[in-house]
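Intended use. Records like the one below are meant for learning the mapping from a protein sequence to its folded structure. Do not use them to infer anything beyond what is encoded.
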Amino acid sequence: MRISSGILVLALPAVAAFLVLASSAFGQIQSTIVCPSGRGYWDVLSVMMMDPGLASNYHMEGITNGLPSSYVYTLWDQSQSKVYYVKNPQGNPWDINLYDSNYIYQWITELGIWDGVNHWNDPTSCRKFNNGSQNATADLSMRWAARCATPGGKSSTFWNSPPSVQPNNTNYYTYVDQLLQDAPQDLGYSRLELKRPGAITITDQRANPPRQFPITTLPLQYTYSCTVAENIRSCKFREVFEYGVDTGVNPVDNLKHSYGWIRWRYYINSSGGNPEVAPTWVLSNTSTSDQLMPGQVSLNFQCF
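Structure written out for the chain above:
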């Protein structure tokens, strides 16, 4: 997820049967919830993060012209119901998601530009989604995805509203050098959609020579800064997050893995969010981390 000019820019029915696997199997996809049967539900959290057996020693990385261009390290803190996506070997920046029995929530992202200074690599500055209610569950506000959902079907789509609505809204707070800034901001209305499965080819660097093979992707489409309730034409920005999971088994170790966050794309509505004009979404930025690489990271989070 990126931040720019005060705007937050977030940097398989046939497969569903294999998503609930024995958690004791090393390196296999870990079941995180029991979903109702017979509806094609996915255990969404299990796909959105690299499975713990793999994440303990590996991460996803992008390579451009022979050099690293992106990183995604997955850290799962079950005791606090948090998933960290760390974007650099130094331990920051990060996106941090929370979850409960119903939803996964976007919670923390890096700051980016603030008063002309780029804080992207600053572990003491960040943005935090919080509904402003001051109660114990205030951080569980920016819904990201349902824990159980059928991609493109049941429970796959919903809107988050501006802060006047409680408890789920797009209100967020800004911290600079660990100091809370005075006024919260918000993203207007936002729409979250788990789209139908796609595909991507990844490279497993554990093999010699490295092994390429296709996997299934779970795309999460995030459209935001919308000025009119449930009107996609009024939205200014869109991001698509793709999370990867083995379609069959990984050919290197013959286990089924989830790989977490693989690819990100950022689009701008060329109409500027004019609610009277059909949107044209123009691709502005993209990042792909499609190499399974050895190495883990120590978290560096000092924002508050």
